[in-house]
């Protein structure tokens, strides 16, 4: 079984920072693995520890500095990591959801995972659409805001609990 986990590098601003033009100076930014993606990596690693023959592969879209994010995921127990980048993306201030989903789908089609996990949202832009858009593009079933996953790898069945509005939980 192969689990693909999407991960994102997010920037945090130091308490004291400098401005460069209209942006925060890059020297005032610290980059880290997105908190919610960290949970997805941890879940995938736990699944691999509980089941034989499970490979955990992470994928990120980002420039060379995002290799630190890759190393964080590998240190948590991922088996392999993939970084997608093209210098043509450098000029983009923001990659839209469709572009990210298209790039991640290309990796997923090459890797042929049985299961894909992604964080509920990104800490920097609070956008929670990439995982859903990726699932739609691949024709995968999906669930958002999952807070518990019970996976029967042998049977190929996943039961999930997810939180809905008002604190209501759904079991699927």
| CATH 2nd-level architecture | 3-Layer(aba) Sandwich
CATH class: Alpha Beta
Beta fraction: 25-35%
Main sheet overview = 4 strands, parallel
Measure the end-to-end span. Answer: 21 Å
Mean residue pLDDT: 87
Strand adjacency order, main sheet: 7-6-1-8
Strand segment tally: 11
Parts with pLDDT < 50 across at least 5 consecutive residues? none
Please provide a written account of the structure.
With 172 residues, the protein is α/β, with parallel strands linked by helices. The chain has helices spanning 35-50, 67-75, 97-111, 130-138; strands at 2-6, 9-13, 19-20, 23-24, 29-33, 55-61, 80-84, 115-118, 146-152, 157-163, 169-171. The chain starts with a strand and ends with a strand. The model has no long low-confidence stretch (mean pLDDT 87).
For this entry, give a set of tags.
single chain; 172 residues; alpha/beta; three-stranded antiparallel β-sheet; 4 helices; 28% helix; 30% strand
Give a quick summary of the entry.
With 172 residues, the chain is an alpha/beta fold.
How do the helices and strands line up, and which of them pair or pack?
Layout: E1 2-6, E2 9-13, E3 19-20, E4 23-24, E5 29-33, H1 35-50, E6 55-61, H2 67-75, E7 80-84, H3 97-111, E8 115-118, H4 130-138, E9 146-152, E10 157-163, E11 169-171
Parallel strand pairs: 1-6, 1-8, 6-7
Antiparallel strand pairs: 2-5, 3-4, 9-10, 10-11
